[in-house]
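Data deposition worksheet. Section B asks for the primary sequence of the deposited chain exactly as it was used as input, without tags or linkers unless they were present during the calculation. Section C holds the resulting structure in token form. Section D is free text for depositor observations; keep each observation to a single sentence. Incomplete worksheets are returned to the depositor.
Section A, Depositor: J.P.
Section B:
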Amino acid sequence: MKITLKPIVQNLKTLTLSLLLGLILAGGITFATASWTGLGWVGNNKPVSAEYVKSNFEYLYDRLTVLRSSTSTWSDTLSGLNCTAGQIAKNNGGVWECADKSDHSSNVDSVTSIAGMFHSLVLKTDGSVWVAGLNLDGRFGDGTTDYYSLVWKEVVSSGVEAISAYWHSLILKTDGSVWATGGNEHGQFGDGTTNDSWTFKEVVSSGVEAISAAKNHSLILKTDGSVWATGSSHSGQFGDGTTSTSTVWKEVVSSGVKDIDTRVDYSIILKTDGSVWTAGWNRHGQIGDGTTNNSLVFKEVVSSGVKDIDAGNYYSLILKTDGSVWATGSNYSGQFGDGTTNNSLVFKEIISSGVEAISAGYFHSLILKTDGSVWVAGKNHYGQFGDGTTNDSLVFKEIVSSGVEAINTGMEFSLILKNDGSVWASGRNRFGVFGDGATIPSLVFKQIFP
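Section C:
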């Protein structure tokens, strides 16, 4: 999945939606309102670890969704609210209040590109950054300890060129500097520490062209074509021949790189000659070298003719200059769209022509054709196809006929950017990543921005 990301159309800005785990609490719809520096709270104010929340987030999320959507009123025991159906709890300067879902749409203009994974970051055309979803470990970067926001909030006012997020958030400013916030336990910031941050801090001063944040490491592409990495390389994802951890940026490729992407413990780079090189974790064949062995060094897996790359969950997609799409790795859910669930250890052609953009998700894939139509294949258990059903598909099926400019897959949701600058979402709205004031999933595409 493209996380940085390189805009799908040249010079477009980026909307990154990235759902991060956070504190949705068991035993009813209960949100903590006290300051938080590493512990969460359950309904009786008993402290629990962040690891507990991460390991139990499926149950906690589902508990929230069922209660919020199935009752005419709901209560938030810690904030003392009693809101009507369709309203959300909003922290207004430290005071919690009921708010209408429509609050999120005020003062929002169009965006021009989309990408995503966990919590929601939006880069607007004016260079400002907006967030929605969960704020565990300070991923919002606004200096608050609010656990969540179901509506969009501005966290950076101007000057941002690109955004990327996983357990931490990265932004690339127009001056070529990189700023980071959130979790830094493996040194993903590259600031020489493993200290988390609740505000954006500068970690590279200049000269950067692209950024990519993964679970345990970060990559940057400099204007001279070199690639630099920081964080954990325990599966060899740095591609520097080691499995060591670094808390400072280190050069891993010296020149000749055009684009970068990362996923869980592996990295993929596109060179200026159209070749693709990969390194890191390879259990499912996602690096496409014909094996399931990890690689500690970048190795060439496609020799030429590639114009875009996208790292998914256990699989990778590439888009060639002739409009064909190729895939490698896990096809467990039919995300290759080739009519099978057979994995591949090398890149295989899955669409022969006519494709403009690709997006590899967790268990489903999106493609954007040159005529502006969107096609999807794979798993559809939360309605991420946007076709009004929860039926999976082993072949690509058309879900939007025209008018789309960019696409992105989240963990269990899909995003499309239309030609008019509006963003639409379908699928699982876990923790409010749609920013629409709710956590209710949608089986059809609904407009979420502006």
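Section D:
The CA atoms of residues 236 and 361 lie 22 Å apart.
The two ends are 24 Å apart (CA to CA).
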